[in-house]
């Protein structure tokens, strides 16, 4: 891999954090929320979940809609959040160490994620809580779909990251587990690395720095 990248844009779900769709679906089913298997996807969330991810609805409206779907007003916020957060399985330490190494080598690293506030707050508490491997250690800045009110693969989200950071597409690498997201970024001249299942993208980046 070319080592001439000044900026790295890194996805969160499926690239940094592991995902367990089946566990999440089972967790919601246990609360009485049915048919979520049609809405929860590894790459793009549907209907209610997608609106939450794009910031079109907030956490309260999201939870209330799920309670209504289950016909159970007594389901607590914490129970809903726990079911939704069960989608996330953890961030291996070596991935965060790779991001920190990039920054220590003078590269800029940005997070670009289709996510929601519930997942993001969980991630901050559980995955970026190691001294020296916090958000500010690993990233120069974060771009989150629910804050930006847009989501990948919309090219406008990449345009906004480029505009806000001053990164140059020709010296920027985007790492994502979705081919559609990679194609969208590539259409703007951004280099891409498709982190397909089983792909050790950290090794590819480290080799590129050598």
TrEMBL record:
Domain of life: Bacteria
Pfam families associated with the record: Hydrolase (PF00702)
Family matches, as CDD domains: HAD_sEH-N_like
InterPro entries (alphabetical): HAD-like_sf, HAD-SF_hydro_IA, HAD_sf, PGP-like_dom2
Protein name (Swiss-Prot/TrEMBL): HAD family phosphatase
Species assigned in the record: Candidatus Avibacteroides avistercoris
Organism lineage string: Bacteria, Pseudomonadati, Bacteroidota, Bacteroidia, Bacteroidales
């Amino acid at each position: 891999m070319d080592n001439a990248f000044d900026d790295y844009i890194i996805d969160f779900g499926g690239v940094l954090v592991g995902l367990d769709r089946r566990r999440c679906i089972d967790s919601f089913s246990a609360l009485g929320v049915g048919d979520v298997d049609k809405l929860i996807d590894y790459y793009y969330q549907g209907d209610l979940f997608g609106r939450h991810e794009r910031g079109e609805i907030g956490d309260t409206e999201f939870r209330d809609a799920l309670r209504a779907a289950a016909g159970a007003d007594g389901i607590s916020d914490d129970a809903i959040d726990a079911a939704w957060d069960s989608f996330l399985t953890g961030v291996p330490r070596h991935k965060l160490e790779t991001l920190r190494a990039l920054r220590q080598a003078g590269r800029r690293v940005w997070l670009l994620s289709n996510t929601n506030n519930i997942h993001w707050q969980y991630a901050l508490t559980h995955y970026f809580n190691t001294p020296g491997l916090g958000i500010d250690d690993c990233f120069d800045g974060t771009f989150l779909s629910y804050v930006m009110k847009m989501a990948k693969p919309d090219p406008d989200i990449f345009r906004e990251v480029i505009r806000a950071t001053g990164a140059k597409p020709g010296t920027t690498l985007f790492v994502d587990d979705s081919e559609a997201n990679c194609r969208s970024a590539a259409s703007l001249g951004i280099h891409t690395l498709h982190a397909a299942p089983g792909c050790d993208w950290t090794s590819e980046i480290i080799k590129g720095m050598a």
